[in-house]
Description:
- The structure holds 2 protein chains of 2 kinds.
- Chain A contains 19 helices and no strands.
- Chain A is mainly alpha-helical.
- Chain A has one domain (2-471).
- Chain B has helices at 2-22, 26-46, 50-75, 87-108, 128-137, 140-161.
- Chain A: Keywords: Cell membrane, Membrane, NAD, Quinone, Translocase, Transmembrane, Transmembrane helix, Transport.
Amino acid sequence: xxxxxxxxxxxxxxxxxxxxxxxxxxxxxxxxxxxxxxxxxxxxxxxxxxxxxxxxxxxxxxxxxxxxxxxxxxxxxxxxxxxxxxxxxxxxxxxxxxxxxxxxxxxxxxxxxxxxxxxxxxxxxxxxxxxxxxxxxxxxxxxxxxxxxxxxxxxxxxxxxxxxxxxxxxxxxxxxxxxxxxxxxxxxxxxxxxxxxxxxxxxxxxxxxxxxxxxxxxxxxxxxxxxxxxxxxxxxxxxxxxxxxxxxxxxxxxxxxxxxxxxxxxxxxxxxxxxxxxxxxxxxxxxxxxxxxxxxxxxxxxxxxxxxxxxxxxxxxxxxxxxxxxxxxxxxxxxxxxxxxxxxxxxxxxxxxxxxxxxxxxxxxxxxxxxxxxxxxxxxxxxxxxxxxxxxxxxxxxxxxxxxxxxxxxxxxxxxxxxxxxxxxxxxxxxxxxxxxxxxxxxxxxxxxxxxxxxxxxxxxxxxxxxxxxxxxxx
Amino acid sequence: xxxxxxxxxxxxxxxxxxxxxxxxxxxxxxxxxxxxxxxxxxxxxxxxxxxxxxxxxxxxxxxxxxxxxxxxxxxxxxxxxxxxxxxxxxxxxxxxxxxxxxxxxxxxxxxxxxxxxxxxxxxxxxxxxxxxxxxxxxxxxxxxxxxxxxxxxxxxxxxxxxxxxxxxxx
Lengths: 475, 170
């Protein structure tokens, strides 16, 4: 709760900083705020101890619980944002007139993300989804003079608001079937339905199905993924990085909570086949689609679809409880860190060379060895090569799914990650094997602070890969 | 009386909703939509939700419809400029929508409506003061957090709509 208040208030304060002529104050302020929120979250004063008591005052009536689950996923999201924002320095240098608005919208969208992982009531979940989505629609179109960006924003907005309608319809039907928005009460009502009123069962099923569609769109799971490549390509690179990490973490963690608390037990038999089909389709489309791309951003868009597929494995293995929560946590952490590193390099290269296809990365190993190395580590981590965080992320997910007896799914996912290695190696080949094009062989400008953050990103990825126990015991 | 009124309102709502889709002229679509909103407000009244009925008319039939009309007049839409949709898209949309309808009807077929008990029914339940009590006690937190949502939307709209230096739109 404290993190929500801090982020909302500083988002407001930040808007006023935008009145300044100079942009220099805004970035340090936002980084400071995020560091403070991360500190509050990690230290856990929000979760236990005296401050947490007023959470339970009657006014909040169990709308939101800031428990361990919320704490951990809030930490992942805030850390991701904190690591991503230093790469917006070009906006500061260029004197972008809307910088304060960008950062404020990001801070507010984090509030939405936190609501999605700490909700206890579907009303809060819906508000969180909307806050996060509306912020993303705006940021997708933030490069106003770029037609691609306009297209991305419009596409995302139209499709997104349509799916919001579907999500809301699902929530309404669930309310009709169970008579409550509260997660725990909904779980009790769902378990009581067969005895109480069997006629309500189909209504609950259809509500859950519509919610599955709504959330599936937000995390770009197939067959609701069609917007992803176009939107990711058109959105300014910095915000694409945010979209593919924070939105995905919040969506998967929030939906896991819903399924785990309210629709575990016997109801699993209903949604498991649907979710399994979505998972297989998502993995297939994401990985095979990525092979055909020539643009690094589009490739990462398809790769983010495939990672949504891997994360769905944890939802399928829901019965393993702690194991699959831990898998979601570790995977989203490793995936977020690697994705931020990849988008950071793409952003820096794009700022100077103004292109984001594979050929734009040519010769980077010679001009900027650090950038090339960071990109290589990020790609290897996304592919799930040992000694990087991505390996253990996949390992935890697969072992959770295997424990629940989904051996066939695990084998399929392993085959798909083998396909993944093929396309993740292509940027590495471009950087190390091909010479830079004439006239664009000048080193890409990287600030000192940015270099430090890049090194930190690599260090985190390797640390998670060689010592996964460092974040163990969270649950 | 209540039942026949319900059927009448449902009939009006359905017919005018179909009118929204099938009308060639966008202005007619908007007018049909207003009719739909009035019929739905009638349903709210039947459900004893007076406040919602009034808000529905003020916000939807009033403000949002005026916004729609503004946009339509700004863009100068008419039948000539309406994009032609391919037949395949129409067939696919009809099949998908029909399937959704089929599934919804099949799912809700066996639901038995629970009527209100006349002995314990509280006729004041939809009044503004009751609503306020619930909104500011039980639902205070969502109410406050919704302000963040509206703030994002406002900041975003201003950011996207504001004129950049050296740019002229009109």
